[in-house]
Every structure is written in structure tokens, then in C-alpha cells.
Amino acid sequence: MLKKVIKIGDKDVAFRSSATVPRLYRAKFKRDIFKDLAKLEKSYKGSKDDGEEFAIDDLEIFENVAYIMAYHADNTIPDNIDDWLDQFEMFSIYEVLPEILALWGTNLITDIDSKKNLNAQAVR
Per its UniProt entry, which superkingdom is the organism in (predicted)? Predict the structure, then answer.
């Protein structure tokens, strides 16, 4: 489990990444977070390189992922994503998305390393 506080506007928001996130995401949004994050990361790199804006569905994926990771860190936030988003002023996706992608990536590396260590011990 990894946790990180990211400043969004004037608020400090906790985000948490763990093996539970894909399950929470699937239960809430009926979507696969791995596919969505791969699409989002590709769009982010493309928009950053080409100076293009994000497509609306990419923004929705970003909001959903951010919400689930924030809810995982602090389940006192609203159950409704719209209510959660309403507490923020406009903020740049380009400031927050890299932080969330980095947190998710670190979690994946940690999971892979844990499985490698577990397999190495099982072989002995």
C-alpha cells in the first residue's frame, strides 16, 4: 500500500494505491482500471508531446481514477464523485495526473517485486 498527498488548488488530498484499487474501480465504474490507465497514459504522452487537449472520455477516466484513489485513502469523502469534484476549483489535469500515474506505477513495481520474492522463497 502506498499513500501520497497531492495539493489540488488549496486542498491537500490523500491518494492511496494498492491491490484493492482495481476492485474498487470495477465495482464503482464497471470498467477495467488497467485498460483505462493505459489509455490515459497514452493520451497524456500524446497530448504533452503534440500540445493537444485531452478528450472528454480521457478526462472522465482521470476523474474516476483520482476519485477511487482518494476514496481508498479517505473513505469519509462523498460517495458520489460529482459531490467530491465539486469541492475543487478548476485545476490542471497536467499537474495532478503525473503524480497519480507515478503513484500507480510505484504500486505495480512493488507488487511485482513482492511476487518475485515470494516465488524465489517458494522455489527453495
Answer: Bacteria
| C-alpha dihedral (42, 29, 2, 39), degrees to nearest 10 | -10
Residue 121 buriedness (CB in 10 A; 0-12 / 13-18 / 19+)? exposed
Closest by CA position to 39, among listed 19, 60, 24, 18:
60
Q: Among residues 69, 61, 58, 64, which one has the least CA distance to residue 13? A: 69
Residue pLDDT, tens place only, 42-77: 887 776 666 667 787 888 999 999 999 999 999 999
The answer to whether 58 and 40 are in contact (CB under 8 A) is: yes
Least Cα distance to 15 among 83, 124, 114, 97 occurs for 97
Judge residue 13's burial from the number of C-beta atoms within 10 Å of its C-beta, 0-12 exposed, 13-18 middle, 19 or more buried: buried
Are 33 and 25 contacting, i.e. CB atoms less than 8 angstroms apart?
yes
Residue 75 cell numbers, joined: 473513505
